[in-house]
Design goal:
Layout lengths: L2 H5 L2 H7 L6 H27 L8 H28 L3 H7 L4 H5 L12 H8 L2 H13 L12 H4 L1 H27 L2
Helix pairs in contact: 3-4, 4-8, 4-10, 8-10
Length: about 180
């Protein structure tokens, strides 16, 4: 959130405008979610072109897309907080690779069955794994592990995504708002 805007004085201009002080962080995270819609549409369109299809119908498919957007919104608050902590855009750019393991250490690319126990535990309880399992279930696509070790987030993926989103929002919305209000002092 801070990045180039702060270094160019845009944040100071926002603070001088007659609007609610919290409009900027809420607007930023809302805009980030809206930016995700055309990206999601492009991904779905590409998938449909190569033969992917949701097998459970329109309503479960829409539910899967809504879960994706909800988790994106919750994670955008985490990104806003990290961006507000950073002093400049170079620092933010250097922090981005730290978030890559969250995606890579999930069941999105490989099943967790063959992972060492400690890594499987982390991957099974990863919010991206819960979202992946929820999307696979709602789209009716295969990929869910059927072994006996399956963790709660993978047996109840929709509930797990909702809980992850609620937890992320409960933690990062207040942190980001406090950091934003502090940066103006």
């Amino acid at each position: 959130m801070v990045g180039r805007e702060s270094s160019r004085g845009v944040m100071d201009r926002f603070r001088s405008m007659p609007m609610a002080r919290l409009a900027v962080p809420f607007g930023h995270t809302g805009a980030d979610s809206l930016i995700g819609l055309p990206l999601l549409a492009a991904m779905v369109g590409t998938g449909l072109l190569v033969g992917w299809q949701p097998h459970r119908g329109l309503i479960p498919a829409v539910e899967a897309f809504l879960l994706m957007m909800l988790l994106r919104y919750a994670l955008s608050w985490a990104g806003a907080y990290v961006g507000l902590l950073a002093k400049n855009e170079q620092t933010v750019a250097q922090l981005v690779p730290l978030f890559l393991p969250i995606t890579m250490m999930s069941n999105a690319f490989v099943p967790t069955d063959g992972m060492p126990h400690w890594l499987r535990f982390l991957a099974d309880w990863n919010p991206v794994s819960a979202l992946t399992a929820a999307a696979r279930d709602l789209f009716g696509n295969p990929g869910m592990s059927t072994s006996g070790h399956t963790a709660w987030p993978l047996t109840h993926p929709v509930a797990a995504v909702l809980l992850w989103a609620a937890a992320l929002l409960a933690v990062f919305v207040p942190l980001a708002l406090r950091a934003y209000l502090r940066t103006g002092r």
